[in-house]
Structure formats: structure tokens, C-alpha cells
Design goal:
By secondary structure, this protein is mainly alpha-helical. Among the domains are: 163-270, no CATH class; 411-529, no CATH class. It is 61% helix and 4% strand. It has helices spanning 2-6, 13-26, 34-53, 62-75, 97-137, 141-155, 164-178, 185-204, 210-226, 235-252, 261-270, 273-278, 293-313, 318-333, 338-350, 362-366, 368-392, 407-415, 429-436, 448-463, 469-475, 492-498, 522-528, 548-561, 566-570, and strands at 420-424, 440-442, 480-484, 502-507, 511-516. A five-stranded mixed beta sheet has the order 2-1-3-5-4, sandwiched between helices. Residues 1-12 have low confidence and may be disordered.
Amino acid sequence: LIHIQQFRLTGTNFSDIVDMMAQALSKTDPDTNSRLISYIFLALLLILAFVIGFTKINDHDIWWHLKTGEIILQSGIPHADIFSFTALGNHWVTHEWLAEVIIYLIYKMGGLTALIFFTATVSALMAFLVFEFGKRRGAPAYLSAALSLFMVAGLSYMMFPRPHAFGFIFLALLAFFLFKSPSSPKARKFERWLIIPLIFWIWANMHAGFILGLGVYWVVVAREFILPELKGESSGIRFKFSIAPALLATLLCLVNPNGIAIFLYPFQISGTSTFKSTIAEWVSPIYLGRAEWLAQMLFYIATALGLLATILHIKKRPDISIIIVVVELLACFARRNIQNFVIILAFGFLAISSIPKLKQLQLIRTAQRAILVAAAIWMIAWFALIRDYQADHDFLGTGIQQGLAPIGAANFLNKVGFEGNIVNVLGDGGYLIWAGYPRWKVFVDGRLDVYGEEQIKNYRLVVGGAPGVLDLLDQINAVAAVLPMPPGIGELRNFLSTDSRWSLVYFDDYYLVYLRRNQANQNIVNQWGYNVINPLQSGYGYNDRLKLEAFNNEAQRNLSINPESGLANSI
């Protein structure tokens, strides 16, 4: 495991692992040891899937989810905004309340490491569900494992300890039950009247993605009623085992703290162009830059496999064809939907009726050892590509991705006892909520529906440094600003650095903190303000020999606060 964890594509370990797998499989007789081969692929799959999911915290929104879970346990579910000063009191659809409570409890048990183990476990569980589905469908173990690992590779881009991780599990369970061969009447009754309604009830209290699940369910139900698989089944039986339990599952989704609003929420977000253009998750994968070539390649391969599965399902399971096409189109419009697409694709592909017949093909039987090794290489190659991507983005290990959140800035504000309203960029609002609520309130965070379209437009003007922005900050009573170092955003940093009403009081390699010079902040500014040093200027603001002593004192003070900072040492 250590060997697999540490290798990079540029090293020699990749070929070593492939050689080890090839030797193990070449010594195994595919005909007499099919169970052993299945165990080998399952073990390899679970190890690789777990390791892919085991990464640093690298998501901005997890923090406000944690704080929400804490607040729910303390005082109940909030239905109006409590975290910001720009949307305070606005209606808040807390559709993820149950997941937030669970995530917070996981954090309480083991901190960030427990959350990392949670995502790794979800990654492995997803792989297992697909593999088990393939096994029950009679698919070869190598094909089930290869598709499972491909799905995990697609999930890795959104495998965060956030509520949507539960949504992945529920969507997989739904596909597990709906895409398989017809069950016995007794099993079907149990699945449709108990298991699936229970899935939707829990799902609707964890994440608004249940809407996609309902869409999938009703497409299958419509096909079952119009084109039943069992000949001679009466319309009454079809209503009893298809439509009636689907109605029950749909109605159970209304049993949540937000009522019918939970049905409207997904369309409110996805139907607002300002929201979609503000969050990277909603950008189409077609427009990803060259740096995201791996995500694009994965998407195009998934698209090709999806088209193949669609064609092969048209005759016997047109419902699966429709579902694959629709979810694929959703993935074309927003890259966050790629994860739903690869889940549906994995189950949909293994549900192809001709898949079990692969074992009987003479060509497959003749070249089975080569196919086994090729499948193992496919899995390890995707593992290598994903881990290399994760290494390049500082995802490997435990803790928090470097520079992800204003950790030092928040620690400083807590240290000096700051209270008030903070201007921040959208991605940092979550951590500032986690670190300082209720002592301070944020300008914006990832809950775009709470702020509304107009406030998000105002946010863009502020961080972009629009004319008169500092007067606007006075109007909204903003008394602090926590902003990332360049590049990114507009001229706001430079305006604050040169305006006498504001003072720089903290900076590190990633963030700057400015305070408004008012009575409440005066003691902090007097003790911690930088009057000479400006990390945004050439020479860090040193342009006068008469200020050398003051510059040196400020530099030493900053170094004592951040001894490991490259910027502090450079100054």
C-alpha cells in the first residue's frame, strides 16, 4: 500500500506494479479459478478506490456545512440566514440538514482525519456496489472492476466530505435496484414498497439531488407500466408494484423541514445564469482549460461508453437508454453532473443484457489471460493518472490543502478579539463562518440561493474593485476584509492598501487582512498595523532609507507570527 501510495507516473514504480499484477494473473487458470480472479480484482479495486478517496480537505464549502451541523445540534434547524451581514434573515432552504449533522458528528469523533476516512470509505463503497451489481448480472469480474475504477476516477473530482457524497450512495443504490433483472414478486414488493421509499425519504433530508433520483425512478416506472418485461402482467399488478410505490416514494420526499420548497430548490440554482457562472462546479466540462485535460479525457471516454450503452439498451431497456442520455446531457452543461453520469454509466453498462454472454465467446476465452492483465493495467493506469493529478494539486495526505482557506487570517482575527462584518471572496466565506461565527459575519459564501442574484452581482462589483467601492463598504458597515493574495479578483486589494481609512494588519503567503480605522478597531490597528510594509508592492513598500528601522521592526514582527512563511522570510 505504501508502494502504491507514493509512486508517481514519472517514476519506475508504475511498471513494477503492472508486472506484479501480470505475474499474479498469469499464474491463475481463468477457467478453474474464476472465484480467485474475482477476489483478486475486488481486492485491487477496493484498495485503489479507497486510496483515491483518501485526500486532504480540498473543498471550500465543507466548513459552513460543519458549522450548520453544529448549530442544528445546539438549537435546531435554521430557516433564515444567520451567517452573513448582507443576507441576514433571508430565507434559507436547509435541504442538507441531516447530512450536515452526520458530517459534524464524524468531525467531532475524529477531526479532519475522520472526514478524510469518510470520503475514502464512500469511494470504496461506491466501487463495491458497482462490482457487486456486475457480479449479480453475471458480468466478468475484470469488466466490473474496470468500470468501477473508472467510475471512482470520475467521482474523485467531487469526492468531498459534503452532503452530496451521500447522494452518490443513494443514486448508486437506486440504480442497483432499478437496473437489475426482474426480482421475484416477494423481493420486488420489499424493494419497491420499503427499501426505495426509505432511500428517497432519507435522501430528501440530506441533499436536493434526490430530484435526479426521482426522475430516474419515474422513467423506469413509466417503461414498466407501458412495456412490462413479464408478459401477461395485468395493469393492476403493474400499478401495484410500479406506480403506487413510486407515488409513495415521491410523497415521502415531502416529509422534510422545508416541505415542497425542496422540490423547487434544484431548479432555482440550475436555472439562474448568475449562480451558474459564479461557481466552478457549474461550468461545462467542454470549456475546461488545458490544465484539466484529464477531466476532459474522462468525460469524452464516458460519453463514448454512454452512447454505446444507449444503443445496446434501446430494444430491451429503453428506459436505461433515456436515463443515460439525459444524465449525459446534464453532465455536458455542468461538470458537477459528471459524477452522476459516471454512476449511471457504470450500472447502465453492466446492465446490458449481452454482458453475461461475454464469458462464452471463444475469442474472449482464448485471450482471457491477456484481457485480465489489460483490465488490471486499465485500473492501475486510471489510479496513476488520478493520483498524479492529486499530487500536482497538493491533495495527497491528511489535513487541509495548502492555501485553500484563510486559516492564518482567521486565527489572527480570533487572537486579537475582532468582531464585526468581513468582506471576503466567495470561496473563503465557508471557512470564516466555521472559524468565527457568531463573533463576525461574512460578506458571501457558497449558499448562493440565500444571497440572491442581485447580491451576487454586487459581490462581483465589490471584489472586482468597481468605482466607489470603498464608499460602498462604509455604507454596508464592512469593517474588515480578508482577501487572497494575487492573482485573482480585481483592484479591491490595491484600493484598501492605499486608502487612509483602512490599515493592513496581517498577511501571510496566501491572505491579507485589512481593518477599517474606526473606534472598535483602533487598538488592533495601533498594535498590528503595517505603516511601511506593503506585500503587494515591489520591494514590499521599502522606498525610503529613513523608514528602514520601521520597516525592519514590522518585518521582524511578521516573521515572529509566521516563521515558516516564505513571504515573511523574503521580506
